[in-house]
Amino acid sequence: MSSSVLTDRRSLIRGTVAAASLAAASSVKAATAPGAIVVSTWDFGVAANLAAWEVLKKGGWALDAVEAGARVPEVDLKNHSVGRAGYPDRDGHVSLDASIMDEAYNCGAVAALEHIDHPISVARLVMEKTPHVLLVGEGALQFALSQGFKKQDLLTPESKAAWKEWLKTAQYKPVTNSEMKTYGNAPGSKLPGDSHNHDTLGMLALDAQGRLSGACTTSGMAWKLRGRVGDSPIIGAGLYVDGEVGAATSTGVGEEVIRTAGSFLVVELMRQGRTPQQACEEAVMRIVHRRPEASKTLQVGFLALNKNGEVGAYAIQHGFVYARCDGTRTDAVIPSASFLSTSYG
Ligand code: SD4
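Structure tokens for the assembled complex are given below, as produced in the milestone run.
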């Protein structure tokens, strides 16, 4: 069944059914969640999607779905680029960035948050409990503690060992795919996109009532300068949701995404009529055209979902994949098209 048919069905239900029968229709939706879909960056998004799907399949709110999904990699000890077990900055501090946004332009974010393993949930509370959008550093930590989060040491023995290894040379080049290079030097390393080498989680969901939400969570670039903040907690850069149009998220070198207000750009292109795929391609090509030399060695990928449940993805380098979960299949991993046919590094 095409997504436009599904959308039409939703509109029909919304537009023509009286309140009493709407309640009955909701329970039907709860069983089947027609039109609901969740997509996430990278293959580790499969596990995150499954958690989000638990919410979506019951007819739940996309915002609850993306928060539940983002919490999965945040406590995955094998994941060294999100949450607990994230690789630290060059001084050994694990500092986390996250953002969340719903269909009505409500949004919250935290940046350079230390000692808290679920930054996405702190971001949601910034959105819901404060008049602000973004809290950073010590203030973000204070806020989290005031909300009942527990202060923890997030530097796992494995991450600490990797950091100590890096300190032997301490080469710091804020270039592409720090994670890729790190894994590339490690025993048993694999290329980006497989289960041993992954990146920021950006997640976009459309629920059975046609509401869009998004979440983005990361430990950012490994060995970054202390205080460095990437695109992930910047609304419009690493994440943007326009409930009337669509949603977008990004992965890769956050500095390049911030420069182009990347996720906002993707959504705005969709507003102007581009498909999600066209919008992602245009946003990537804008980076490539503005910075042709740098683009040879850096990775940026965009993932987009529109109001009709259509998905697009595009990256500069080969190797970007995304996970997709909907009423027909919950564990799909789909390779993104890319500007370059190979992967740097
Ligand atoms: C950042 N975009 O902090 C994030 C992290 C990432 O490859 O995706 N790194 O810039």
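Residues 276-290 form the longest helix (15 residues). The pocket of N-hydroxy-L-asparagine is lined by residues 177, 179, 199-200, 218, 220-221, 230-232, 251-254 (CB under 6 Å). Further analysis is deferred to the final report.
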